[in-house]
Amino acid sequence: MLTKEEVIKLLNPVKDPFLHKTLEETNGIKDVTIKEEKKHVSVKLAIGKTNTAEQMQLQQQVVGILKKNGATTVGLRFEQLPEDVIRKYQPAAEKEKEASLLGGNTNTKFLAIASGKGGVGKSTVTVNLAIALQRLGKKVGVIDADIYGFSIPDMMGIDHRPQVRGQKIIPVERFGVKVISMGFFVEDNSPIIWRGPMLGKMLTSFFKEVEWGELDYLLLDLPPGTGDIAMDVHEMLPSCKEIIVTTPHPSAAFVAARAGQMAMKTEHEILGVVENMSYFESKKTGEKEYVFGHGGGQKLAEVLRTKVLGQLRLEQPYEEEDEFAPSVYQTDHPNGQEYHRIASKVVAAMDD
């Protein structure tokens, strides 16, 4: 029959499913009781999170190990580890979890671009921020996670689809930025009719089945609001930071606050607010006209206890005959220069 010491030795290498550290490292084996006459082993374990599917899998693993080594019956009890132990190991565990999504790339930083409502220019901000980061010498990828409103391929002037190499999808590259979008897999702009679980699988596929290579930043263009995809991102990418996009109109800022509050509740750091379509500047007089109101971005930043990263004017990119990319601002365009400043602030904040 197993002894208490043998049980501890058998279970020490078993890993906590949330912290990805062994039970020996977390001091997770709290109590072992042996009833020799019945060959019964009773064990009390402390883990990072209780009452989950992962706990059930761990339970089956532990029971299997002990029965294989001589126990006839096994009793298990679980409790949560102390907060100081969880805090000690959680950041590394989250990084390991995120790295597994990208085939082990631990250096990639995740940045979600969110908004409370559609039509505020969230995708435009995503595209141009990604390109501005690339212009700063960063390796950048974009996931167009706005499943029902995918638009990034059109915005960037992408006219071809990803290739498949072996079991991996090769993202399309444009302006030095790697892009994957639901738009690549839909024929004739057909509407998408999917439910929550299917959306979650799609997002996982965009991480695991795409050959991203080495990336410094992976930007996610989230659907507006606080729906299934936003929830999946918060669950899959604990260290993901967010930028909230709004217009200067108070109503748009009020709605955008919901997306920001969701980020705060899920402990996602908000890097700041980008105010799009802040003003129109007359080329004749040089005067600014606040077409969509004034001050919404600053009010939103105050509510979310963050800062305004930049204010973008209401103006189209320059027309270029040899380069079709209807939403990409050139480096010398006033908005291109503003995106450069925003990107610099993002790098400083995320590399801190």
Explained architecture:
The chain is α/β, with parallel strands linked by helices and 352 residues long. The chain has two domains: 4-90, GMP Synthetase, Chain A, domain 3 (2-Layer Sandwich); 102-350, Rossmann fold. It is 37% helix and 21% strand. The protein is built from eleven helices and 15 strands. The strands form four sheets. It has an eight-stranded mixed sheet with strand order 8-9-5-10-4-11-12-15, sandwiched between helices. Strands 1-2-3 form a three-stranded mixed sheet. The radius of gyration is 25 Å and the shape is elongated. The N and C termini lie far apart (54 Å).
Which features would summarize this protein structure in a list?
352 residues; alpha/beta; GMP Synthetase, Chain A, domain 3; Rossmann fold; 2 domains; 8-stranded mixed sheet; 3-stranded mixed sheet; 15 strands; elongated
Quickly give the structural class.
alpha/beta
What's the story with the biggest beta sheet? Answer: 8 strands, mixed
Distance between the termini: 54 Å
CATH architecture of the largest domain: 3-Layer(aba) Sandwich
Mean pLDDT: 85
> How many extended strands?
15
User: What spatial form do the alpha-carbon principal axes imply?
Assistant: elongated
The CATH superfamily title of the largest domain = P-loop containing nucleotide triphosphate hydrolases
Low-confidence stretches: none
Count of folded domains:
2
Number of helices: 11
State the CATH class of the largest domain: Alpha Beta
Order of helices and strands: HHEEHEHEHEHEEEEHEHEHEEEHEH
Strand order of the largest sheet: 8-9-5-10-4-11-12-15
Radius of gyration: 25 Å
Quaternary state of the chains: single chain
Helical residue percent band: 25-40%
Strand residue percentage: 15-25%
Q: CATH topology of the largest domain, what is it called?
A: Rossmann fold
